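Chapter review: from sequence to fold.
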Amino acid sequence: MFDRFVVVDWSANSTPKRGRDSIWIAVSEGDDVSVSNPSTRGAAERFLSGLIGAGSTSRTLIGVDFSLGYPGGTADALGLPGCAWESMAGLLGESIVDDDRNVNNRFEVAAALNSRITATGAPFWGCPPSRAGDTLTVTKPASFAPLGEWREVESLLREQGHRPFSSWQLLGAGAVGSQSLLGIPMLHRLTAEFADRVSVWPFTTGLRAPVVDRGAVVFAEVWPSLLALDVGDGLVRDEAQVVALTEWLTGLDASGRLAELFAPGAVDAARVEQEEGWVLGVVR
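The token string follows.
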């Protein structure tokens, strides 16, 4: 299906950083695997833009390790019109400020969204005490109503014995919420820049294997912890995970088994395709 596989381990660092707990990008093409460790999200976005770049004929799958959507009903709770995932991505693209030194306003945006949804410290939660207030708290709220805590894919992962994090949790080891707030705007910009070549599974493709022409790029959500990985001493786990995921995807494609991952089984298709998204590799 694809000529090139890219896996991105995103980061919500507020200062430039390399090494552990920073951005890692693995690129697999043919027998070659390369790894980059940009120190800022701006540098990472430029790297990905260059990969997609006009004139490239590679059919590329790019996996990103942050939630691409939110639990069903989020867009309605915010009063957003039109397609839920697109309107949410547009709202975050307009709201998030993230400069070239990683300075960003994600906690302020989360507090503002909470104010619109519940006027309390929910559903987004988790922040440094200095950023806490009436509409964003350090600790988990007692209720996420009128929304759920989990997307359908996360509920399935929990049923299968995994421990995913909710899109709402912004802080803490393993939390993914901040990465999503900062990553979705990046994806929104890239899809606008390369609108004729980029699709986002399953939002623009449906829950099926995408049709991939020469030069086409497909973004999909991945979850590195889906693969059991023994990281040796002295290795950076994030780096090892992105390499392992690119090798896994490459192997599945070579054996003709990759296409089936894009149709994960019995799910609420409308909810998944229009707002929540899905994690590539999670099947019933």
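Two observations follow directly from the output. The chain has two domains: 4-67+178-276, 74-159. The longest helix spans residues 237-254.
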